[in-house]
Amino acid sequence: MTLYDVVFKNIKYNIQKYFIYIASLTFSVLIYFTFVSLQYNEQISEAFAREDKMGPLLTIVSVFLSLFIMVFVWYSNAFFITNRKQEIGLYSLVGGTKKEIGKMLFYENMSLGVLALVIGIGLGQLFSTFFSMILLKVMGFSLVVHFSIQPAAIIQTALVFLFIMSITSIQGYLIAYRFNLIELFQAKQKMQQQWKPSYILAVLAVVLIGFGYWSLLHASESKSWTDHFGRNFTMILAVLVIGSYLLFHTGSGFLVHIWQKRKKSYQRWKNLLTLTQLKSRLRSNGLLLTIISVLNGVTLVAFGFAYTIYFNTLQTLEDHVPFSYQFGAQSDLTDNEMTKILETHKEHAVIFDETFEYLVVLGSANGLDSVPGGFLYYRDSFSVLSISTYNLLAGKLGRAPIDTIQGENETVILGRNFIGSQKKDENVGSRLSLISPEGELPFHIIGNKVETLFSYNVQPSVLIVNDGIYEYLKKGGAIHTTRVIKVDNQKESGRLTADLKSVYEWNGTESEWFEPDKGFYSFSESYQTAQSIYGLLIFLFGFMGLVFLVATGSVIYFKTLTEAAEDRKRYEILRKIGLSRKKVKVLIARQTFLLFLLPLLVGIAHSCTILAALSNVMDINFIYPVSISVLVYTCLYGLYYHLTVSTANKLVNS
């Protein structure tokens, strides 16, 4: 019998044993090939070209995935090889040389890798069209994706994974040289050592995590966080990781120790057998559970944040882009032509069509508590509207009007942050000044309205003044006239937008730095841009989340099976003294449940705290999107738990 025959028979008769390893490799290939195929898909490239050429982001993610997958495959292979040490010892016992055993392990791992590569690319090719449709759907593109084969994607995926499998196969080859025969046969005979948890370290774990949570939730109120956000956030993440490690290594064991002290807990056989080795296993798996909890937290933060931004942006976009169309005043001929175009699109009935003017006036914001960003973008200038013009537009938009502005030196400031918390009484009571024809004119802010009145990409800081003061400032200010239109079904008004833009005349000058009032702005384009950008992020983070999920689930799977194989004789003894196979399965399920549950709960707690802190800073509601993300992730995580319990039960209870 040749070495190749041994490799072939090992794979043939142990395919069920190798299933999860092959499945993990196959899924990794599938995910990587999907990203690469999207990069080379011409239809996707054309869509990205229309949206600020976001295609290169796929390249960055594919590189990141390849690095992560390399670490994951290395780790999985290490568990896979460790679980076969006795088998390797047997080959050595019957006369196999270290070189022959090393070659066998190398060829076997390469064969499994090639098998996973072929299956993964095949499945990826079949599903690439489906994934492309999902990507375009969440990005809001109405394109029909055709099936296509990307040879460049196949070659790149094959090269990357053959390189990864070569490294892990060399790892398997060297295993025969790293251990002597007695070490290989005793690999599964290590006994769990009993230990007494440290009360001090358990308390320290709770203190560190509690301090990290408190700091994150109060970050929006701290000047230190405002000035040194990156430094503080990095330090808090380090504190949470250390606290998590101590929690798994000592804190969880301490809770089990307290549980053991309760005599009633031993009155049920499940508790007696579950608690026996649980303390030592939690301690020995402390680092592993910490890594898994961090990966769970990172996944939930990334996907939860992307989904929240996507959900909230599309839900609140109308607050930031109040008009279906806004553009600088055109010639009478062009205005009439646009009106005719509006009349021809019966599916988008005109709700209102107004033309109004406003001033852009230089000013000073030194007296304000918080300087609006629009003031700086508009070269230290404010946009000034008369109260009558504001009330006209507010009535059209269904907003509350301003009753009156009595004093000539009184004003109401208006503005809304796209992202970030904002106080309703911000700058109220403060003072500012405008440059009038006769010099500096001071104003007292008597009110603040958190809203937008322009569809510009960058919102100006708006001041509402009484009509008399407006006419006075108008003598020396820059007058801007703009037309605003509101239509029905504005999200789907892409064709109307294209028709209007075809006759629009830009009347600015190329040499000027910033002329938003001269541009053409539409709600449909803003909605499409937001949906495409954040839809792409959801797609990317969703697939990265699947990779992390497979990684964490597989690591726990391999670890559980390794420990189950070590305890196989103990389970046989339990069955011999009368414990039924059903009760053995319950025992396995309870111990495995804690290994899955603890890092999941810690990851959810960390991610929810981080997202809650971001919610305080950004003034965005994370509850609904994050709840959906956690629910979906938990369900998928639960599938891995059931697969692990089923496999472990077959291993020790058959």
UniProtKB/TrEMBL annotation:
Q: Give the membrane topology.
A: Multi-pass membrane protein
Q: Where is the ABC3 transporter permease C-terminal domain?
A: 60-178, 543-636
Report the coiled-coil segments. none
Q: Record's superkingdom?
A: Bacteria
The residues that cross the membrane are 18-35, 55-75, 112-134, 154-177, 198-216, 236-259, 287-310, 533-558, 592-614, 620-640
Per UniProt, which keywords does this protein have? Cell membrane, Membrane, Transmembrane, Transmembrane helix, Transport
Q: Where does the record say this protein resides?
A: Cell membrane
Record-stated family: Belongs to the ABC-4 integral membrane protein family.
Q: Supply the name of the protein.
A: ABC transporter permease
